[in-house]
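re the bet — no i am not wrong, look at it urself. input seq straight from the record:
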Amino acid sequence: VQLQASGGGLVQVGDSLRLSCAVSGLTLRGSTTMAWFRQAPGKEREFVAVIFRGGQTLAYADPVKGRFAISRDNAKNTVNLQMNSLKPEDTAIYFCAIGQSLIWSSMRNDQAYPYWGQGTQVTVSS
């Protein structure tokens, strides 16, 4: 299983970015949980967003609610993260992750995900 994250870059405050994670070696099913996490310099990795139940259920970390949107494209085997109104505190390396048949209580826990992408850097300059 391989996850390839892309779309990061250097942007200004208020700009938008769209991250994409291409999945190979694994067929996305309704039970597949797909998530984005991020890690800022000197900080632990933190949950950003998750999509599961075939895309019917979404959840977001409080700092990104209303600004970020997670989606999946089963035909392309990708999970995407649309990031709008970016702030300097969004600066981090963003990682996509996949798990199978995760329970709700574990979905925000990075330890629950066995498959990870390599990360893509997002830098928001003020």
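see?? The mean pLDDT is 94. told u. also Residues 41 and 92 are 7 Å apart (CA to CA). so pay up
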